[in-house]
Amino acid sequence: MHIPDGFIPLAQCAIYYVILIVALYFSGKWARENLDEKRIPLLAVLAAGIFAIMSMNIPIPFGTSGHMVGGALVAIVFMAPEAAILVFTAVLLIQALFFGDGGITALGANVFNMAIVGGFTGLFTYKGLNGILGKYPSVFLAAWLATLVAAVVAAIEMAIAGTFPLTVGIASMALYHAFIGIIEGVLTVIVIYALEKFRPDLLAWNRD
Fold first, then answer.
1. Distance between CA 39 and CA 31 in Å, rounded?
2. What average pLDDT does this structure show over 127-152?
3. Torsion angles phi and psi, residue 57, rounded to 5
4. Which structural domain range is residue 177 located in?
5. Rounded Cα distance, 154 and 170, in Å
6. Which end of the chain has less neighbouring CB within 10 Å, N or C?
């Protein structure tokens, strides 16, 4: 799902960078108001875990790469997509600079896909389904859908840029990430279950 340099024209990259700057402004305000000495280490641990799972990727025909994301996990744990924006900006920047995974010019687009789209989709899917299906089925479906939607949005961006054919690109990214999303959903449930069992004080819904 990482978009490399050169896959999106610089004019379009600039648009995603503007979105990123605005998102970081509001995320910084959220961090100053909500992060404390107990939750900052949790954010760092989640960032390290996300760095690891995103490093395990596979090439996708007519796409970029397929991997788990973690946007829904961060957004649900903190009940704030702003947390995902902070985590993914840091992780994707490090991956692009030092590991050649994703691009610097495409950083805004990658954060938009995985953190903004993934975080908002995951959080609000969870909120919408929680009262109907219960906590853990909602967490699973939120993580699965966030992964799928983020991948489809990445494919649409590359189609707009003229990098890949729209129909085949979306089909390839969606098919792979529909399966990857199942694994992500299970892992997201496991992480949130573990936090609720051993450190429930760190979960935002237990603090509000």
1. 10
2. 96
3. -130, 160
4. 10-206
5. 9
6. C
Name the region of 157 (left: φ>0; alpha: ψ -120 to 50; beta: rest). alpha
For residues 149 and 41, give the distance between their C-alpha atoms in angstroms, rounded to a whole number: 29
pLDDT at 205: 80
- 176-181 mean pLDDT: 94
Structure tokens at 78: 């903190």
Q: What is the pLDDT of the chain when averaged over all its residues?
A: 93
Output the domain CATH number for residue 150: 1.10.1760.20
Max Cα-Cα span within the chain: 48
pLDDT in tens, 26-50: 999 999 999 988 899 999 999 999 9
What are the CB-based long-range contacts (under 8 Å, 24+) for 190-199?
Answer: 191/49, 191/73, 191/77, 192/73, 192/76, 192/77, 192/136, 192/139, 193/136, 195/77
Q: Is 137 domain-assigned? A: yes
- Dihedral sign from CA coordinates of 56, 58, 59, 60: negative
Which residues lie below 8 Å from residue 173, measured CB to CB, with a gap of 6+?
1, 60, 63, 64, 66, 151, 152, 154, 155
Residue with token string 């219960």: 134
Overall number of domains in the chain:
1
